[in-house]
Amino acid sequence: MKKINIYLAGPLFIQSEIDQRKKEAKKLRELGYEVYSPIEQNEDIGYDLDELYRRDIIAMTKADISVLCLDNFDSGTMSELGWFVAKKKPVFSHWTNWKYEEPNNLFIRGLALEGPNKLFTDLSLLFEHLAEYNK
Fold it and tell me: Is the pTM of this model over 0.90?
């Protein structure tokens, strides 16, 4: 059986965000997925913007699905969200803002819920969904 490829993205500006993406990558691998995480590439090659962009686009093209953290409306992650929706690849995203049940930006909310896409406010529910999705 072919492993499903996931492109994992989210804000990566502070150490807690970097740590969270690493935890998510580890959990997704435990669920049996192949995972591409931009922060792991950054650690591999350093902060080379052109090379990171190239690697990210290749990984996005190869990905079967994406898992995105929509917190803080990070512009890079929002671009990736739009790219995946335009390519009609499923997006499973999470939103942990305690003030709002869903993103309060109508375009981000719309993209996150477009077609087969799903939006989770609880990370454990996202992982439960992905455990079933990979069967």
Answer: yes
